[in-house]
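Budget justification aside, the reviewers requested a transparent look at the raw inputs and outputs of the sequence design task funded under Objective 1. We therefore reproduce one unedited record. The lines immediately below are the structure tokens for a 167-residue chain.
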């Protein structure tokens, strides 16, 4: 993350339409976001890491999304992963390439054994993306998250690095 990412992150994190998918239920101030970006991040202390995803758009580089590792567990060598791509940049291969880079970093630099994703039911595009990235659905958690339209199941998708999903 860079200081110029402040407004994008501020908008994305404060879009309450998406809060139901995560643990956020309050807006984040610009000052808190500025401090987060400027912070001295350590993946083992913070148990999370965020990258901004840039792509060439109309011959200029633009930030089109973000990738997260969260709940990094150094004992069990696993971490959750999440991805956000802005609407105009979706379905163009950026998410797949971002996940490829994230998996390589998690495996080769952090020494993790696996990464996983939790996908709310009905998110067909996310299931297709993670499937294409080598993740396999390994289970379902019933009524796991509360959405504006009621309770949703969540499927768990795993990429075990000692299987064909190797980065």
């Amino acid at each position: 993350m860079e200081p110029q990412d402040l407004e994008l992150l501020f908008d994305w994190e404060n879009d309450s339409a998406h809060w139901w998918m995560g643990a956020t239920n309050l807006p984040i101030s610009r000052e808190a976001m500025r401090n987060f970006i400027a912070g001295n991040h350590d993946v083992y202390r913070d148990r999370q890491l965020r990258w901004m995803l840039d792509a060439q758009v109309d011959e200029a580089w633009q930030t089109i999304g973000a990738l997260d590792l969260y709940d990094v567990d150094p004992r069990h060598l696993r971490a959750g992963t999440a991805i956000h791509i802005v609407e105009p940049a979706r379905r163009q291969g950026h998410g797949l390439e971002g996940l490829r880079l994230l998996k390589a970093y998690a495996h080769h630099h952090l020494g993790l054994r696996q990464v996983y994703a939790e996908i709310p039911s009905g998110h067909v595009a996310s299931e297709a993306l993670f499937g294409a990235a080598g993740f396999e659905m390994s289970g379902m958690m019933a009524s796991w998250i509360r959405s504006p339209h009621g309770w949703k199941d969540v499927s768990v998708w795993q990429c075990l690095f000692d299987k064909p999903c190797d980065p």
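The chain is about 30% helix and 35% strand. The longest strand covers residues 60-73. Computational costs for records of this kind are itemized in the attached budget.
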